[in-house]
Amino acid sequence: MDPSPASTGSDPGPEAEPEPSYVSCRSDDSNPRLIDFKRPGPEPEPSYVSCRSDGSNPRLIDFKHAVKRRKRKQAQTITKHIRDPLYSKGRQHYYQRVNQESSEPTQKHQTHMDSTFMFQLLEENIVTFVKKELKKIQKVLSQDYPECLESQMEDEEVLYGEDEEQRRSTSDAFLKITVNFLRWMNQEEMADFLQSRGPAAVCQRKLKSNLKNKFQCVFEGIAKAGNPTLLNQIYTELYITEGETGEVNNEHEVRQIETASRMRNRGETIIRPEDIFKGSAGRHGAIRTVMTKGVAGIGKTVLTQKFTLDWAEDKANQDIHFIFPFTFRELNVLKEQKFSLMKLVHYFFTEPKEEGICRFEELKVVFILDGLDECRLPLDFNKTKTLTDVTESTSVDVLLTNLIRGNLLPSARLWITTRPAAANQIPPGCVAMVTEVRGFTDPQKDEYFRKRFTDEEQATTIISHIKTSRSLHIMCHIPVFCWITATVLEDVLKTREGGELPRTLTEMYIYFLVVQTTVKNIKYDGGAEIDPHWSPESKKMIDSLGKLAFEQLQKGNLIFYESDLTECGIDIREASVYSGVFTQIFKEEKGLYQDRVFCFVHLSVQEFLAALHVHLTFISSGVNLLSQQQPTSSYVIDIFDFESNEDSDIDEYWFDHKNECEPQSAESLFYQTAVDTALCSQNGHLDLFLRFLLGLSLPVNQTLLQGLMTMTENSSQTTQDTVKYIKEKIEETASAVKSINLFHCLNELNDCSLVEGIQQFLESGILSDEFSLAQWSALLFMLVSTGSELDVFDPLRYSLCFSEEDLMFVLGVVKVSKRVVLSGCNLSGTICESLSSVLSFQFSSLRELDLSNNDLQDSGVKLLAVGLESPHCQLETLRLKLCNLSDTSCGALSSVLSSQTCSLRELDLSNNDLQDLGVNPLSAGLKSPHCQLECLRKKVVCAV
């Protein structure tokens, strides 16, 4: 007779019957069968309610040898019913009824019994998993079984409910545990070997192999054709310095190049490429995001390729698990698509996907984002939603924004490269360190050409020639220009033995175009070297490329997609042909799935072709593209968007000066229009364009392009008119940087009369009563163009009269001078703000400044103190004798002396009414542990 619920709890026997467990309510099979009762007929269906079935009757006989079999059957039964979709529903109904009929202690006991069985199942699953994993590991550690762990997973039995990612994740976790145990057992060799056979290690080897194949060769501007050059063979170390965050330079990059070419050995922190994430010695904390700035063609991309190649070749940064180099050119194409971070990585790099790596949190990963200035994605760091899950899909711009902010995969490191003008797209708070690539130093220029030319004599000839032309020597600061120069001079030395080598930028780029056209005619058209360069096909190509260059230059685009080409009337198939034959001028880069991106090999090539297009259009049709009108109406010109010049009334300026112009030829007005247009640009974005356009007006350069363009009539007279006009503008121009570019324009026109005149004047030793603005401009250009620091700049050596306006004009000379003497120059305190900016200039050469005998007053010293406290200030001697100072100045100077970055060694405050009130602040500054002052002059007042 089956026991009733009431009698079960008090039924006598060898053992007391326990409280109902309710486990048997799930099925009659849930209670382990140790004795096989022979019962007729099938067992009843599980009721989920009744506790009176035969299956719930306690078994008093226990065979110990059946324990393992019982546990196995128990686990299988539980697992079977857990996976049964009716289980959860039946259990829910059951507990609803039980809750009404049973007491609270009974529910707790049932939960305890339920969890006991579940933990038994958990234990068995874990043991099974561990045994399987250890078997795999044992095979891997066997020398006769050199298979990686990942390759064994294909035949592996997957646990219930476990997907592919979970399986890989648990196996990876167990591998790490095993490696740790082996190290704890001092089995280092075995641990290293096992670690090398894991999925991450296999993925790393595959990734390194593919990246090595991708980056070991460079084509130096050649897109599809040409002999590849080994990167390690041609690579020359670049000059990389640690800069400041938040600095944005919108000047034309040729101005930045000219500035950087003079800035050497200033005590900056030099960074080796392999140490890009380490920073300077005094920096604390980890560096997550590095931004590297540099002008176009300076070598940023090659730098990232060398960094990646060194890692792939096991030469550096072996603590990094993965490096994933992306370019914004490729990412732009994905603008309309959605990715998770992991899918984006898998899209570009198949190795992690092949090895089943779906997380990077515990790995050291570097993402390289090359070419921020080329980004066409709407990066919005203010309104973009926060994203933290690497598996969640979103637009690429949101993905990148969160990655850069550190919301997404904060453990990753990022290296972003950009041209200076685009650096402000990323908030300073998202960047841990800013570095700057400044291209080749003078010794590195020589090194490049000696590597490029195996003939020592030829290399020496080329190096010597470049040094004779200041404009060429400055541009060789850019590695790409070194390549262009080498290409041209190598050809000229072969084909024009004994002939004169090109000396101006315009000549150099004309020769470059001629060389590439000749190569195209011989290689693709079956012509000979003596054949005319300008075939109808070549003319059409140059015309199309020139139009593209000009129209995209107006928009500020340096890379072009199919839509850009269509706007310029160029079919993408045409563009592909152009890149195939003009391989060293116009490049096509194919991304994944054949997405096409086009660009010129360098910004300067685009500017030259743009100038050539404007010039050819005017010569052939009389249309002035700079005014969009006929040349006779060329005074109102502003096709370019000069946002920074909104306050000036350009139209009024032109018409005010129109009547002053003498009747001139259309050609002369055309070039004068170009000069005026360039001067309207506050940031000098047309500086190089103007040099090329004016250079094309010379008869000698037009001869080189004969067949492509028609010689202009009266070109000699046009040149004279243009030179005269530029000299007039130099007299009127109050901007030193604009004046310097006008002198470069005169160089392109082969006119050096102003510079030669100032040189003769200086050699005569006669002082002028007053320098004209043109003379100061010529002196400034001559001094700045030397390419080296000046030992002393004393304006009173040149002119008996020197004003604050003159000083503002020649601040560029002050920056590159070691010692500046401005004593007795009638300066007021307001000029100190400009001098303070010179002191805080990152690359200033100034070490000694004499401002004695000027009415600076306390207000001037306060302004000066701002620059003196700058970390970039390296001034060692400051003379403020007889400057009408009071005790108020002593407080500002005391703060300077106490500053950690102060480098002052000598301070002269003689003949100032400091009184006793100034002594205490000065004494406090002198007692500071940071004070480095060795000499203080304060006579007439008191001694400290």
UniProtKB/TrEMBL annotation:
Gene Ontology annotations for the cellular component aspect, listed alphabetically: cytoplasm
Biased composition (Polar residues): 1-10
Record-annotated NACHT domain positions: 288-422
Recorded coiled-coil stretches: none
The entry's keywords: ATP-binding, Cytoplasm, Leucine-rich repeat, Nucleotide-binding, Repeat
UniProt cross-references to PROSITE patterns, sorted A to Z: LRR, NACHT
Compositionally biased spans, kind Basic and acidic residues: 26-42
Pfam families in the cross-refs: FISNA, LRR_6, NACHT, NLRC4_HD2, WHD_NOD2
Keyword Transmembrane set for record: no
Gene3D superfamilies registered for this protein in UniProt: P-loop containing nucleotide triphosphate hydrolases, Ribonuclease Inhibitor
Family matches, as InterPro entries: Leu-rich_rpt, LRR_dom_sf, NACHT-assoc, NACHT_NTPase, NLR, NLRP_HD2, NOD1/2_WH, P-loop_NTPase
Organism domain of life: Eukaryota
GO MF term list: ATP binding
Renumbered residue ranges of the record's region Disordered: 1-56
Compartments in which it is found: Cytoplasm
Identification of the protein by name: Protein NLRC3-like isoform X2
Taxonomic source organism: Betta splendens
Gene that specifies this protein: LOC114869908
